[in-house]
């Protein structure tokens, strides 16, 4: 496989790094106004709509180019939470509109979603339906020329600031894969409300809350795809997320790896730089090997997505590899800094930001189940009661 990026993509990557280092500095505390300012600025750079087609005002990047952009954002932007929010918007909420929206829906929402004017959130997880995504309790029932949504979503990234919600609800409870339908719901729609912003251990720059639907009526024109195609839409958005979103972690890991190498070169104990001790240098090499291996898996998955030759295995392996490497790299970076590592700083920050990566986008255990199933090693997915 050819892993070289085109000169244009390399140039774009450098530009994103410079932009992020200059404009996306980490605020001391989460602040909605500042978040919106940075979001609009990232929109002007084409980052929040990077793979929206040019016809709808986006940059028209393919999955490899989008991954390169996200990697650059993760490297340049020390606030990995902000990069995560951008990626969650783009891959879990905007790409479903790109891939399944009608012409009218695309014209209505994509230009503003790509320019940074609108922020999107993706709602599937519920208190009783985390990994078991087909058993949603949020119901969508027919109501005149639309549907009435009732239910409770949780852990919804971007929801405290979102203008648009991509919502999965059960139109046929117990209908398995064909029981879910996807809706686009605009903020301000009666019956939609958002809870208090959570305090999280990591990704603190990414706002998250619960979302409630209480008799929220959505017209037919805001159904994405056909009724019953929600699970297929969700699977498709997760392929994007498990591949391109995780590229932001590759960038963050590289940033911390570089500063770790600098630290072990400079820090002296016993009259010599600590990097000269084999226990230290081998740990650095292990960090590098994990980062590099995860990176190759991710770009392989992105190439499959760009070429249309993707399967379920590539994105799952990339997701597992990047998230596990990020956690281990965070631990190693803390250890190699000694006591400095447990002070507020980029090593402990990477570790905290990496922990959720093993959970969101489908936990790593669920990814292993998916790969095992693709290998014929565990029971098939629950089938629908009909169709
Ligand atoms: C930072 C962050 C951002 C998120 N953003 C969003 C968002 O924007 N929108 C959204 O809808 N959701 C979001 N989520 C929620 C996320 O998708 C869920 O947390 C995830 O799917 C796991 O569900 P759960 O937390 O209920 O864990 P559970 O499903 O309760 O799992 C608990 C543990 O049991 C294991 N487990 C469960 N079932 C199996 C099984 N069959 N085999 C083996 N192990 C199993 C899991 O792997 C895990 O270790 C986010 C989560 C985080 C942490």
Give a brief rundown of this model:
The chain is α+β, with helices and mostly antiparallel strands. 49% of the residues lie in helices and 14% in strands. The relative contact order is 0.12.
Describe the protein in words.
- The protein is α+β, with helices and mostly antiparallel strands.
- It has three domains: 112 residues, Butyryl-Coa Dehydrogenase, subunit A, domain 1 (Orthogonal Bundle); 107 residues, Butyryl-CoA Dehydrogenase, subunit A, domain 2; 142 residues, Butyryl-CoA Dehydrogenase, subunit A, domain 3, CATH 1.20.140.10.
- A four-stranded mixed β-sheet has the order 1-4-5-8. A four-stranded antiparallel β-sheet has the order 2-3-7-6, with helices on one face.
- Strand 2 and strand 3 form a beta hairpin.
- It is globular and about 80 Å long.
- The mean pLDDT is 95.
- The chain binds flavin-adenine dinucleotide (FAD).
Tell me which ligands are bound.
Answer: flavin-adenine dinucleotide
Name the overall outline.
Answer: globular
Spatial sequence of strands, sheet with the most strands = 1-4-5-8
Q: Which CATH architecture of the largest domain is right?
A: Up-down Bundle
Number of strands: 10
Distance between the termini: 40 Å
List keywords for this structure.
single chain, 387 residues, alpha+beta, Butyryl-CoA Dehydrogenase, subunit A, domain 3, 3 domains, 4-stranded antiparallel β-sheet, 49% helix, FAD, oxidoreductase, AcylCo_DH-like_C
């Amino acid at each position: 496989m050819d892993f070289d990026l085109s000169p244009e993509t390399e140039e774009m990557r450098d530009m994103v790094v410079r932009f992020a280092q200059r404009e996306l500095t980490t605020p001391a505390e989460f602040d909605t106004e500042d978040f919106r300012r940075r979001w609009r600025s990232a929109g002007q750079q084409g980052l929040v709509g990077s793979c929206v087609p040019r016809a709808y005002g986006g940059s028209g990047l393919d999955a490899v180019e989008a991954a390169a952009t996200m990697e650059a954002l993760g490297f340049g932007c020390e606030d990995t939470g902000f990069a995560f929010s951008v990626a969650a918007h783009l891959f879990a909420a905007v790409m479903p509109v790109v891939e399944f929206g009608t012409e009218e829906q695309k014209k209505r929402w994509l230009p503003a979603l790509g320019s940074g004017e609108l922020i999107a959130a993706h709602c599937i997880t519920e208190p009783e339906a985390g990994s078991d995504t087909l058993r949603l309790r949020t119901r969508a029932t027919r109501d005149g020329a639309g549907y009435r949504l009732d239910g409770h979503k949780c852990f919804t990234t971007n929801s405290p600031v979102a203008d648009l919600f991509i919502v999965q609800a059960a139109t046929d409870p117990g209908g398995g894969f064909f029981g879910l339908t996807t809706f686009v719901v605009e903020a301000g729609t009666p019956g939609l409300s958002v809870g208090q912003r959570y305090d999280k251990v990591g990704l603190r720059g990414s706002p998250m809350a619960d979302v409630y639907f209480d008799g929220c009526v959505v017209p037919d024109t805001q159904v994405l795809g056909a009724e019953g195609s929600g699970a297929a839409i969700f699977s498709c958005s997760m392929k994007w997320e498990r591949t391109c979103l995780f590229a932001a972690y590759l960038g963050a890991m590289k940033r911390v790896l570089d500063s770790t190498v600098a630290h072990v070169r400079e820090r002296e104990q016993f009259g010599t730089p600590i990097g000269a001790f084999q226990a230290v240098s081998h740990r650095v090499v292990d960090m590098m090997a994990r980062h590099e291996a995860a990176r190759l898996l991710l770009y392989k998955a992105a190439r499959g997505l760009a070429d249309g030759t993707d399967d379920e295995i590539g994105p799952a392996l990339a997701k597992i590899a990047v998230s596990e490497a990020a956690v281990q790299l965070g631990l190693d970076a803390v250890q190699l800094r000694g006591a400095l590592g447990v002070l507020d700083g980029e090593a402990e920050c990477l570790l905290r930001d990496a922990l959720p990566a093993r959970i969101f986008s489908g936990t790593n255990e669920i990814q292993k189940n998916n790969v095992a199933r693709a290998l014929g090693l565990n029971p098939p997915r629950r089938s629908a009661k009909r169709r």
